[in-house]
Amino acid sequence: MEGPHFGHRLASCLGGVTLAALVALSAAPVRAAEPAAAELIDLFAGVCLGKFPDDAAVRQFATEERLAVMPDDIVRQLLGTDPGQGWFQDTARGRYLLTIEMPPYHTCAIRKTDSAAPDFLASFSLLLAAWAATQSGASLKPLPPQNAQVGGSPTQVYQWVLDRGPGKPAETLMAFVTNAMNRVAVRLVRQIKVQ
Asked: pTM of the full predicted structure?
């Protein structure tokens, strides 16, 4: 699937309310981001916001888009001992890794490694705000950025907490930017703590 198709899926997955929210926020559409950032964000929006947490819908997306199934050893490298599945999405811009992790932390993630990080954070933040506005009774709260070590490499961590109200599990949306050996890995995550 190439970049231009992502925008149509974003609109159909998230509905007109998201686009209206973006306009209401006076935000430039996701498409205005640099192409590498737009593709990354569109894939996350279409799968992790539009299909997940319905694992069957994520698997159906992977089948329909003819994504390559990730071998078990690579899934284990990414998820450790946590159960899950993964797929490769190859585009003209490179390879994306899509994973879903099973509870207790039910997670959907998109990973992309490149020579430089795309300028995605502003567009990603706007997307999350617009998506959160479509979630009935939910509120989105950004947390302060943090510096961490992931796999021994310096990592910038950006987090947002989506509160769906009393008795409903909170969700955490995250962006990790890891600098390692002349490469930058970006991971966009939607995580639901299953109780």
From this structure: 0.83
By CB atoms closer than 10 A (0-12, 13-18, 19+), residue 130 is: buried
Show the DSSP H helices in the chain as ranges: 3-24, 35-44, 55-64, 72-79, 121-133
Distance of CA 95 to the CA centre of its chain: 15
Residues 29-62: tens digit of each pLDDT: 444 568 889 999 999 999 999 999 999 999 999 9
Which has the closest alpha carbon to 129: 170, 160, 157?
A: 160
Phi-psi region of 26 (alpha: psi -120 to 50; beta: other; left: phi over 0): left
CA angle 104–178–29, rounded 5-degree value: 85
